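Complex 242.
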Amino acid sequence: MNLKEWKPIYNEIMDDFGFSKENDLKSAYLLKDIIKNTGNNIELYNLENIIKNKIVYIFGAGPSLKKHIKSYKNIINSEKEKDNIIISADGATKALLEENIIPNIIVSDLDGDLTSIIERNNNGSIVVVHAHGDNVEAIKKYAPQLKNIVGSSQFPEEIENLINYGGFTDGDRCCFLAEHFNAKELILCGMDFGEYTTKYSRPNLKEDIEKADPIKIKKLQYAEKLINWLKENGNSNITFIQ
Ligand SMILES: Nc1ncnc2c1ncn2[C@@H]1O[C@H](COP(=O)(O)OP(=O)(O)OP(=O)(O)O)[C@@H](O)[C@H]1O
Ligand SMILES: Nc1nc2c(c(=O)[nH]1)N=C(CO)CN2
Ligand SMILES: [Mg+2]
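Predicted structure with magnesium ion bound:
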């Protein structure tokens, strides 16, 4: 999705949630400056090399996540040629690591389980760090500590060193990223949307799966809508794992 297509969708989302566009821009500039000062970003051709022509498994943090990790393992064990990669959306990273599955790329606005993300980053996973108006403190604290990052913004303007291929939540932004770099196929796992979420998405839940709060439910509605947009308007073949 280009910025011209993203802008009206972005405006609708920001108005709907009452989020501040000004704060989004501030956060984006903060991340841009951190990248400039630390030089901890990687060139985008690295993402292209990882994603292009690959089968991309994208893991979200919905109630089916653990079941879908099992399905993924079965598929991988029965395949001879492994031309697939994994992109995990934020909180899903922890669940993957629990099952010894290593994401190649993590897409995060740094409100997931930071221990898992930092550990994986130290061991080679690229982190696409997303700046928005409500994660300024997390950007300040964690972005300088990470290496091999790609900066990301939702503000609908070109900003040096930051990508914006459309998308809102970490999960749907994984899909826009894979589409942008010409993945062969996208296979979605743990992407239930709906009204229930998991402790991987919300670490303070008492149960493994609970009814999501109204804001989360609305975020998930946009995530689903955006993925449907991609199905209709993108080039990628998008399916859900069984
Ligand atoms: N039922 C679900 N519960 C949680 N995540 C889901 C669900 N279905 C799909 N997902 C996708 O998995 C991703 C998991 O990311 P996570 O919830 O950790 O971060 P997030 O996008 O930053 O959300 P939030 O801003 O609510 O913390 C979501 O962004 C969403 O796109
Ligand atoms: N300003 C703002 N932007 C967001 C937010 C949020 O809470 N505030 N949450 C998102 C979901 O991952 C994505 N973008
Ligand atoms: Mg997040």
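The beta strands are 55-59, 84-89, 105-108, 126-131, 149-153, 162-163, 185-189, 196-198, 209-211, 238-240.
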